[in-house]
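<given_protein>
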Amino acid sequence: MAKNMLVIDDEGLVTKSLGKLLTKEGYNAVIASGAAEAMEKLKASNFDLIISDIMMPQIDGIEAIRKLRQIQKDAGRQPIPEIIITGYADQEKYKEALKLGVSDYIFKPFDTQQFLEAIKRKLNVT
């Protein structure tokens, strides 16, 4: 059974590219253009992994992760591993992600193979 991924990014080109890559690799990629949309999708479905950009309007990726974790907890569901992707080398956001215990933090542009390996590690698949 294909693993379900929630991909959150406000840049359409990024979500389109990630969606194609993940689908090609046999994953089911569900796209959200921001935190609010991601929260609605998480309430309606179960996901195996969350991939989120950091720099987004209204609610950034760090706050989105906090809110998504709370939704999971309130629904009595297990935590979901997260991978943060970002094009900005912001040390404060990086430190926040580490404090939050985010599974992985990847800088854009990233090597596709390294990205896919990070996904496999988070999903415990080979």
